[in-house]
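DM from R.C. (forwarded with permission)

"hey, sorry to bug you on a friday — could you get me a structure for this? deadline for the figure draft is monday and I only need the backbone to look sensible"
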Amino acid sequence: MDCPAALRPRSTMDKAAVLAHILRSKGKSTVVGGALPVSVISSNKYIAGAQGTEDDWSSVDEAIHTALAGENRAVVLVGAEGSGKTTALKNMVVDWAKGQRLQSFSHVFCFQFSELSSLQGVFSLDTLIQHHHSHTPAASIQSLLQEPEGVLFLFDGLSEYKHSLDPSVHILCSDPSQEASVSCLVASLLHGSLMKGAAFVVATRPTESLEFLSGSRVVEVLGFLKPQREAYFNGFFTDPATAKKALAHMERTVGFYDFSTSPRFCWTVCSVYKSVLDSGAELPETLTQLFVEILVHLLPTLSLGEASNRELVLALGKMASRCSLGACSGSAKEQMASFGLQQFVTSVDEFLESDGCVLSFHTRLIQEFILAICLLLDKSAYDGLEKRLAEHRRGSKFLDFFLSGLSQPLQRRPLEILLGEFNSEQIEEFKSWFESDLKATLQGFHKDEHHRCFHLLHQAQNDSLVKEIITSSARTAISYGGLSLQDTVALNYVVTCLGEMETLNLYNTRNLSEEPAQVLAPAMSHSHVINLSSSSLSAGAVSHLASALSRGFTRELDLSNSQLGDEKLKILCSGLKDCKLHKLNLRGCRLTEASCEDLASALSSNMSKLRVLQIFFNELGDEGFSKLCRALHGPACKLEELQVQRCNLSAASMKALSAAVCSVQSPLRKVNLTQNHIGDRGVEILFESLKHQHCKLQSLNVFDNEVSGVSCPHVREALMSEHCRLSELDLSVNDVGQEGALQLCQALGRPGCPVEKLGLRRCKLTVPVFKELGSVLRSGTCGLKSLTVGLNKVGNGGVKHLWDALLHPGCLLEELDVEMTGLTDACVEDLCAAIRASGTLKSVELRNNSLTDASVPALVQVMQDSPNMLEMNLKYNDFSEDVFEMMEACDKIRY
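My reply, with the result:
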């Protein structure tokens, strides 16, 4: 859009006046206040990013200009404190005045909401503009108001405005000469009734006040992301090595906080770091230490002396206290005397900024730091520290952090040189509260509160304090999944102070990226158990995990349901080849045949100590599983337990497994093949290997594997073999049937049969089978201690054979599962007699039967009378609530 011809000559003169006005520096640059916007613009250091990520960002100017070029020329600029919003607006005015950008506008007017807040009475739009832009001739303003499409209004600091701009609370005006309150004029401008067609940009911190501007285009000011921080540090320090060192240190210590994106904060850090590096001292490690350095850098420049320094800080503390308790950002200038600041008029600029008639701290951080100092410095002003702290914590985010750091002698000592000794009683009161509060919090189960404790300990930088507060009972209670980057820093500090962690519980950590994983790597290497189940990890995060495993002493790692995938597993396996890991859970990690070669390579490493591999619910297939089995032959493989449930295996890969378990070098003791498809042929191959003299297999689970009674003769022969060591066998949910089960009974009754635990749940067993099982249990030669025969509908008559067997002294059963076998109250007399007679029975599973209230008195009584019995499960029977209290009286009954 071109500028109206009639206005061009006048506009040129106006631009010169505007440029001269805005480049006339007001105030001064300060350590905590940052460089003035004009200085930033003049030095070409204005590089704040907007609307994007570290890899996809644009400058604030570009984003605003793009938004203004659209049909809706209303832009809301949203960003945190110190992110560069004010500089962005002033830069827009400078660009316009220099003729570089925004030339479609005949004039640009910039207003500060803090100044508008102080205006009383009524104004017309032209008088309001003249009041704030006296450098612009009145004749120009009158002409401009007739051409609204050529005017751009910039409003800075909406979140600081005290009055409502909601159109529903004003009678909006449309005439520029009409007088109204300032809030009504601004509301009329923003909502288009006044100067309709004009463009505007409103800058604000995130606030609910944006709701009534919902139709505007929002541009988010991101401040300094990593690329911009790097550019800024390189520009600040003349030596590239120093710039690199300073940036790396900031990123490691405070770069993970949100405020590190603030250009103002980066100015502060660079200023302090330069001073520290020039003196040859160590750079600060925490936020508290950084702000101690800020004051150590700042106070000597005021040349006040110790007594005056103390008096100034205490006066600032009174103002900080009022701002905190009132949840406000500043105080009226006339209140300076009440705080004791009037005598320090020439010094307060280093701490405070002035907007009209309101004074406020340059940042909330310096406000809270000054408050923390005063709470520990002067007891007379703050009786009852704990009460005062509770009052202030509601309006402060980092007060606890600063108090924690300042309570430590080494951290506050540089300030005591400048301010005098802190009050010892106040410090001891805080430390007493601090320790008891943290200990109590860590006994609870609120993750966020645990994180807060870790942050406070991190600020304290006291290893012995960490060991005193973080007891063993507080180390494994809850999951710390979903950590922010700053949380990982604090948690890592705590774990490394402790020296070791039994369980680092990171369950359900979503999107664990490389940076937090790198921070957590030392903590991982110090943890005996790492739980990352149901988490999602980037490739970079997996790389740091692998490195931590190879360096540390982790013995268990749970990555179940982490959707790891083949490529990330390859990265993980680099750490598995040389680590102390004994147990690895890869359940449901979307692994395929491609992963098996990497796992096989890791298992074959001479340095691998892996004993248990849980890799079930993955699509390994026969080819993949066969590759894995070949690693079990090697002399280096130490695997004792292999869980491959539901991995799409068939009989085709059982030869490879059979060869592995028969190997003289294989230590394999336990294999779980649940819910595969090995069938009768697979069972035949496997049980043939059990006869081999070198086979060490002690536990085999073929639950739900499409097996029938045809396989049972092979099972019988294997179990009767002199070399068979199988003590646990689960054939549940297979078509074993009566004939197959009777074959098994022949082996079970043979003297020397090693089976102690047998699973035959839902195997189509009949009453004759139960009769034979009862006979075998009574034989005195059967070593069965655990028998599961639930979900076989044999009723009271079938299960009676097992009750009768328990009456016999030769029966060694300790656990009996007869869930859903069709039992009724009629069996209770036999059941109770069996329990009383057995000297070995410890638990009975009776779920999902048809027992009623009538059975309960006898069952409760027998459990109370039988010291051997530990548990009876009666869930899902036909009980009414009338007997719940009776069953609850016996803590050994589950109902």
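R.C.: lifesaver. Residues 369 and 529 are 38 Å apart (CA to CA).
me: no worries. Residues 731-895 form a domain with the Leucine-rich repeat, LRR (right-handed beta-alpha superhelix) fold (CATH 3.80.10.10).
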